[in-house]
């Protein structure tokens, strides 16, 4: 991908002739250790800061796409999604980027192998799987960087779900976003565990898209966020390189709390936590005081994602019955 390539030229130049009857793909969900919070460009999902995530192994989205009739037909977990639903409108807007001509629809069958209500951003694995499935359908064989840029146009965090393991999304500086893509880090960490702890399966009242925008525009604390994210990103890179779990967990937890602090100061405020969220935070801190290195991160929802090492899985499961444990590198 040449950086002097005009923004949409490579997209426009892609073949629109199907290479096979159906394209299919899987993409894993990802959890940010340094959050994406705030856009510098809403249309292109260009972030204010870089972010860093870890993928969730077999938990993600599987998608099949075919060229269909006159209108898009979207199925989610085996059920037709009404075209006027937000999810279908967002998918259709994304499909417009690659549609061979107006009036040609796609049939998209997408399944989330995610525990329902765990607050896992299904838009990340969803748009990544759709980008990969389109690449398969048309036989484009795009490289990871282009796939990440394409997925990003559907949802920012989807840029981090093209590749697995630790993934860093470079914010980039170009107005056209051609330098805003995610890349896998070379490091593996087989002992790392993520515990999905569900507090509420309810749909959140304020979308992360709306919350990050409101926060960027109205929160007096937002101006502090870019420097905090940059510092945390550097600490996380160092923690991953050195396999320093304490540094990784402490930094990820602090980053999440700072993100939530910025939105608490938005007008009107956004508070995703429920009473049980806070109870679990104290449980985590209690375990740490007793000597078990466990940390949490929280996304735009009430649920916690615990970070710990394989050797402490027993202690964590005993303290948090119902936790679903994922081994991202196992
Ligand atoms: C993240 N979140 O880094 C952050 C932390 C939520 C909290 O990325 O508007 O669904 O589609 O670009 O990707 C969720 O935001 O937002 C998200 P859009 P997206 O994981």
Using only C-alpha atoms, the radius of gyration works out to: 20 Å
Tell me the major beta sheet: 7 strands, mixed
Helix coverage percent: 25-40%
Name the structural class.
alpha+beta
Number of strands: 13
Helical run tally: 9
Order of helices and strands: HEEEEEEHEHHEEEHHHHEEHE
Rounded average pLDDT: 94
In terms of DSSP E residues, the strand content is 15-25%
Approximate shape: globular
The stretches of 5 or more residues where confidence is low (pLDDT under 50) are none
Q: List each distinct ligand once.
A: ligand 2P0
**Gap from first CA to last CA:** 32 Å
Which helices and strands appear, and what pairs or packs with what?
Elements: H1 9-12, E1 23-34, E2 39-41, E3 46-47, E4 51-67, E5 73-76, E6 79-81, H2 86-95, E7 106-112, H3 122-138, H4 144-154, E8 166-169, E9 182-184, E10 192-197, H5 208-218, H6 225-242, H7 245-264, H8 275-289, E11 295-298, E12 304-309, H9 313-319, E13 324-326
Parallel strand pairs: 5-7
Antiparallel strand pairs: 1-4, 2-3, 4-7, 4-8, 5-6, 8-9, 10-12, 10-13, 11-12
Helix pairs in contact: 3-4, 6-7
What does this protein structure show overall?
The protein is built from 9 helices and 13 strands. 34% of the residues lie in helices and 22% in strands. The model has no long low-confidence stretch (mean pLDDT 94). The strands form 3 sheets. Strands 1, 4, 5, 6, 7, 8 and 9 form a 7-stranded mixed beta sheet that branches. Strands 11-12-10-13 form a 4-stranded antiparallel beta sheet. A two-stranded antiparallel sheet has the order 2-3. It is an alpha+beta fold. Bound molecules: ligand 2P0. Ligand 2P0 is lined by residues 32, 35-37, 45, 51, 121, 123-124, 155-157, 208-209, 299-300.
């Amino acid at each position: 991908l040449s950086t002097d390539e005009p923004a949409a030229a490579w997209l426009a130049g892609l073949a629109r002739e199907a290479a096979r009857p159906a394209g299919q793909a899987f993409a894993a969900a990802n959890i940010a250790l340094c959050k994406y919070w705030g856009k510098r460009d809403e249309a292109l999902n260009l972030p204010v800061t870089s972010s860093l995530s870890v993928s969730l192994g077999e938990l993600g989205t599987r998608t099949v796409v075919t060229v269909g009739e006159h209108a898009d037909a979207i199925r989610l977990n085996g059920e037709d999604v009404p075209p006027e639903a937000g999810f279908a409108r967002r998918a259709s807007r994304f499909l417009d980027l690659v549609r061979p001509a107006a009036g040609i629809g796609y049939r998209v069958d997408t399944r989330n192998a995610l525990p329902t209500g765990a607050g896992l951003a299904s838009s990340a694995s969803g748009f990544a799987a759709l980008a990969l499935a389109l690449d398969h359908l048309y036989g484009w064989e795009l490289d990871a960087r282009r796939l990440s840029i394409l997925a990003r146009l559907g949802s920012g965090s989807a840029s981090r779900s093209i590749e697995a393991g630790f993934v860093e999304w470079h914010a980039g500086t170009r107005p056209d976003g051609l330098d805003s893509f995610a890349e896998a880090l070379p490091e593996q960490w087989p002992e790392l565990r993520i515990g999905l702890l569900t507090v509420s399966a309810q749909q959140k009242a304020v979308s992360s898209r709306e919350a990050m925008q409101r926060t960027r525009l109205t929160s007096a604390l937002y101006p502090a966020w870019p420097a905090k994210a940059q510092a945390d990103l550097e600490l996380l890179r160092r923690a991953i390189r050195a396999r320093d779990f304490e540094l990784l967990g402490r930094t990820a937890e602090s980053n999440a709390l700072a993100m939530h602090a910025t939105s608490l100061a938005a007008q009107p405020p956004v508070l995703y936590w429920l009473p049980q969220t806070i109870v679990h935070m104290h449980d985590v801190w209690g375990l740490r005081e007793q000597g078990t290195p466990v940390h949490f991160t929280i996304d735009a929802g009430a649920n916690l994602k615990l970070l710990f090492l394989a050797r402490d899985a027993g202690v964590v499961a005993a303290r948090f019955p119902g936790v679903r444990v994922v081994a991202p590198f196992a």
